[in-house]
Design brief:
By secondary structure, this protein is α/β, with parallel strands linked by helices. It has helices at about 15-25, 35-45, 85-90, 115-125, 140, 155-165, 180-200, 205-225, 230-235, 235-245, 255-265, 275-290, 295-305, 310-320, and strands spanning about 5-10, 30-35, 60-65, 75, 100-105, 130-135, 145-155, 170-175. α3 runs parallel beside α4 (about 115-125), α7 (about 180-200) packs parallel to α11 (about 255-265) and α7 (about 180-200) crosses α13 (about 295-305).
Length: about 325
């Protein structure tokens, strides 16, 4: 399990960052853009339009996904969760039995309520689904700043080998077999980051932010337990760690969108060119929470606000006027 030849599908900010860090780890990396025109433009400029000012390492082969992905040892899918299904379906014909197909997006599919590894398993049954997530900003990773993430697969030996193949001193990859926990942390924290952004946009103060993040984590933890996640995963990098990061910096697209909501200056979080995946995940998360009997008042308020069913002020008032109760 050497995993020397690595393909990264998705030449946006996150895909470019991953390609940069993996090639520095000594792997042979191909970065696949959505079409030949995009691939040619990136090769000519030496950077991704989604990550301006950060050079693509010259050792990375930039290709179009239409050229095919034969001969890879592992494939990373750095694409939004809601577009994962067609891409995974398209790759199914070139996937050899047991080839790791690693989801690097953070969300839950709308309509099906499937987690990203479930989508992969359904669309590319020969693949070995895995997921990579954790507290990481694309710009930091691409520039080689210290970062730590979690990679989960159903086989511990495979997960450990992939972690060694992708990791480096500045990109520490911890391994796990708790795919569900890693997926839940990444999906739920995006929704909660919108709430943290609203608090910042309304200038409600650092105390309110601390309360929001703490109570938000309680919601994430309850949801995780209901859907099979391990406690140590939820309190680890891909759970609490990612929540802390994304709720503390406007570098987070979701927090930035929430700030705009709080200030009353946003559109919809999708058409700006920088997708806030929490906008699309919020209603799915709430639907699943309701079906599982999980109480998630903060996530429910976020879903109502982004759907235009509730104003920001009414959402804040509703949360502040909830009955007093024991902490837990």
């Amino acid at each position: 399990m050497s995993f020397q030849r690595i393909a990264v599908v998705g030449a946006g900010a996150w895909g470019t960052a991953l390609a940069n860090v993996i090639v520095r780890a000594g792997r042979d990396v191909s970065l696949y853009a959505r079409d030949r025109a995009t691939a040619s433009a990136m090769a000519a400029s030496g950077e991704s339009p989604r990550l301006p000012g950060v050079p693509v390492d010259a050792r990375i082969a930039i290709r179009a996904i239409t050229e095919g992905l034969n001969g890879q040892d592992a494939i990373l899918l750095a694409i939004p969760a809601q577009t994962l299904r067609p891409v995974a379906t398209g790759l199914a014909t070139v996937i050899t039995r047991g080839l790791p197909l690693i989801a690097c997006s953070k969300g839950i599919e709308r309509g099906t309520h499937q987690f990203v590894t479930q989508v992969i398993a359904e669309c590319a049954p020969a693949a070995r689904p895995a997921v990579l997530s954790g507290p990481s900003f694309a710009d930091d990773v691409a520039r080689g700043l210290p970062t730590a993430v979690t990679l989960a697969a159903d086989d511990d030996a495979i997960a450990a080998s992939l972690a060694r193949a992708l990791g480096s001193p500045t990109f520490r990859v911890y391994h796990s077999t708790d795919m569900r926990g890693v997926e839940i942390g990444g999906a739920a924290k995006n929704v909660l980051a919108i709430a943290a952004g609203i608090v910042a946009g309304r200038a409600l103060g650092a105390s309110a932010t601390a309360a929001l993040v703490t109570r938000g984590f309680a919601e994430l933890f309850r949801f995780g337990q209901a859907f099979g996640a391990r406690p140590e995963t939820l309190t680890g990098l891909s759970g609490l760690g990612d929540l802390i990061l994304t709720c503390s910096s406007p570098q987070s697209r979701n927090m930035s969108f929430g700030i705009a909501l709080g200030r009353g200056t946003t559109t919809n979080g999708v058409s700006t060119g920088k997708l806030a995946e929490g906008v699309l995940t919020a209603p799915v998360l709430v639907e699943m929470a309701q079906s599982g009997g999980v109480e998630m008042p903060i996530a429910t308020a976020v879903a109502a606000v982004v759907a235009g069913q509730l104003s920001v002020d009414d959402a804040i008032e509703g949360l502040l006027n909830r009955p007093f109760r024991a902490e837990g």
